[in-house]
Amino acid sequence: MLGIFIAHLVFALLMVGMLLSVIAYLILLERKTAAWMQDRLGPNRVGPKGLLQPLADGVKFILKEEFVPANADRILFLLAPIVIITPALCGFAVIPWGGVLGAGAHLPGWLGGWTFPKNFSVMVANPRIGVLFVIAMASLSVYGVVLAGWASGSKYSFLGGLRATAQMISYEIPLVLSLLSVAVVAGTLRLGAITDSQASYFSTVFFLPAWNIFIQPAAFLLFVTCIFAEANRAPFDLVECEQELVGGYHTEYSSMKFALFFLAEYAAMITGAAVAVALFLGGWHLPWIDQLIYPGAPGQPLVTGWGGVILKFVVFWAKVMLFIFFYMWVRWTLPRFRFDQLMNLAWRTLIPLSLGTFLLAALFVYLRREGAIEHRGWLLLGNVALLAGTVAMNQLWPGESTNRRLPVFNSRYQSAAGVLRPN
Amino acid sequence: MLPSTVVSVPAVLAVGSMYQQWALLGLLFLIALAFGVGNVVMSHMLGPARHGQVKESTYESGVDPRGGTKERFNVRFYLVAMIFVVFDVEVLFLIPWLSAFNHAGHPGLKLGQSGQLGPPGPGALFVSVLIFAGILLLAYGYAWAKGVFKWD
């Protein structure tokens, strides 16, 4: 019993280390991606192809001056980066990285050759309320942002903090509802169990894996939108938009305190991507190829030996990395929202849509209990109808938009005479 | 190598697997906290410290800072905060409902005693969540009509 506990603890330490080094390289990857999309070279001076850049950044962060402005609330100013990094590094604890390692598996000889007496879930901890834990850690991150914005004593920070609070709390509601609509169909709040329920195929359409993205696309769309907003990533990065607010809530921060905000943002990105993979993209399920490895099985088996666990771990991280590349792709593709658009999107579109998704999932589960319908395709149909209905509503009933069409000609917006002509 | 013989297990870990999960989460929390505190302390100790009146003034794009930040700000932020509390609590109520819905109709929970009401079945729970969502939508419509969501 204690052995398994220590194994989980060692795994937790390994994952923290892995997360931090992945984050360091993600920053390099982000700069390289930006350079690639803007037809530049990107960082290429430190080490071969700039690969040692994260190391140089880290050393520089630690050796720079740690500085508190005179106008700041000293204690809260120092507390804010700690408050933001702690939940960000805890959120990944309930992610099922690689299924279950069967009892009787050995550690390699050079590690002591210890035998696992029981099945070992390849995750840090597996509480019954995993989804709720993820939500809790995501919403705790807002406190660090508020503290930083308020304690800095700078107007840029203050406005950034206000915006961040309004944005993060607004997008939290559809986030929770989209997670719950997945949980109600799976019938559990454990992330591991929700992943296991996806490791198979639609019964009639064999070649479509039964991932939740194909069962509840509306919930997936909501979830992706909300994790972008929760992580303050473009196109929702109004919190730190440099053209208006310099750096937003971390304007006054320097050295390692600034780095902690950065680390927290990237840790939130990784956790968000990992939750998306675990809940919507099939987790460690390797579609189609699993039929070659395990012929005749309905999907990938849950409990495996070392080979299966390592395969699952690699597949999971590959999906996470693809998702993170999607984050970066969006960042360098979409322009930033305006603040009223951001709030309207959350309160007037996403919240009703997410409530609809949740009720639809509950209706499906109820009808399945009653035996009226069996196939998950009905839920897919309902989701598609819901999305189509939302788009149609938006078209038919645009509401009071600030994007009015201004008459340009003969107004003060008209450019110099003779430059523009009406068609 | 870990001993294969009986080890004395701390009481809190031996009680059951649920306590183990939360002990693990608590330890992870401590690790994360130590990481944050350690980094702040380390950069405080390793970095240089040179003070100056201009350097320590608030950054305002190069001009002398004017006024403070502890001032009045737009009332919409308060409105959003209040409406968020309402909605977030309502959404959190759905989680116990979810737990009840998962277990409803389970054969072990059926009470067939005469004159005794058993726990609600899936149908009753589904109707109850519809009523819940209806009340929520009523509040939502009221807030919309009052212009809480107007941000232009």
Please explain how this structure is put together.
With 423 residues, chain A is an all-alpha fold. Chain A is built from 14 helices and three strands. The mean pLDDT of chain A is 83. With 152 residues, chain B is mainly alpha-helical. The termini of chain B are far apart. Chains A and B meet through helix 1, helix 2, helix 3, helix 4 and helix 5 of A and helix 2, helix 3 and helix 4 of B.
Which features does this protein show?
heterodimer; A: 423 residues; mainly alpha; three-stranded mixed beta sheet; 14 helices; 3 strands; 1% strand; B: 152 residues; 2 domains; 4 helices; 57% helix; disordered N terminus
Compact description:
The complex is a heterodimer of chains A (423) and B (152). With 423 residues, chain A is mainly α. Chain A has helices spanning 2-37, 53-63, 74-90, 130-151, 155-186, 191-196, 212-215, 217-230, 242-245, 255-279, 289-293, 306-331, 339-370, 377-396, and strands spanning 100-101, 120-121, 303-304.
Q: Oligomer, anyone?
A: heterodimer
Report the end-to-end length of chain A measured between terminal Cα atoms. 80 Å
Q: For the report, how would you describe the main beta sheet of chain A?
A: 3 strands, mixed
Q: Give me the secondary-structure category of chain B.
A: mainly alpha
Q: Segments of chain B where pLDDT lies below 50 for 5+ residues?
A: 1-15, 107-115
Write the element-wise H/E pattern of chain A from the N-terminal end onward: HHHEEHHHHHHHHEHHH
Number of helices of chain A: 14
Percent strand of chain B equals under 5%
Instruction: Let me know the largest β-sheet of chain B.
Output: none
Number of beta strands of chain B: 0
Chain pair with largest interface:
A-B, 92 and 76 residues
Give a count of the beta strands of chain A, DSSP E runs of length 2 or more. 3
Overall radius of gyration of chain A = 24 Å
Instruction: Tell me the radius of gyration of chain B.
Output: 28 Å
CA-to-CA gap between the ends of chain B?
Answer: 65 Å
Q: Helical percent range of chain A?
A: 55-70%
